[in-house]
Design brief:
Layout: E1 5-11, E2 18-21, E3 28-37, E4 45-53, E5 63-69, E6 74-85, E7 89-95, E8 101-109
Antiparallel strand pairs: 1-8, 2-7, 3-6, 3-8, 4-5, 4-7
């Protein structure tokens, strides 16, 4: 039986979107993504989240979310459904400034 848990946590890079959740050998079921802008300079961060094939470059066609988060603020994306991430896919992310946005992905895998 699948149990709700923290599936992944990382800081988002800038430039090219990088894997932030890549289920290997399991099927992931994502329910919430929490993003926190830890930037103390007052700079808002634009965050982009993608779902596509593992190893492939993220494109606009793969974009799930684009949001601007003010410095020191937290954004919770609570999906009204389970986002299924199969073994061959991954969730990728990027922000305006590297290592300023903390990303936490919650759900279950089986």
């Amino acid at each position: 039986m699948a149990t709700h848990q923290l599936l992944a946590s990382d800081q988002l890079p800038t430039g090219t979107a990088a894997n932030i959740y890549d289920p290997i050998g399991v099927t992931g079921m994502v329910k919430n993504i929490v993003l926190h802008n830890s930037n103390t300079s007052g700079t808002p961060e634009t965050v982009e989240i993608y779902l596509n094939a593992t190893g492939s470059a993220a494109t606009d066609a793969d974009k799930l979310l684009k949001v601007s988060i003010e410095a020191g603020e937290t954004f919770e994306w609570s999906l009204g459904y389970m986002l299924i991430v199969v073994d061959a896919n991954s969730i990728k992310g990027k922000s305006t400034t590297a290592d300023k946005v903390n990303c936490f992905i919650f759900g279950a895998d089986e």
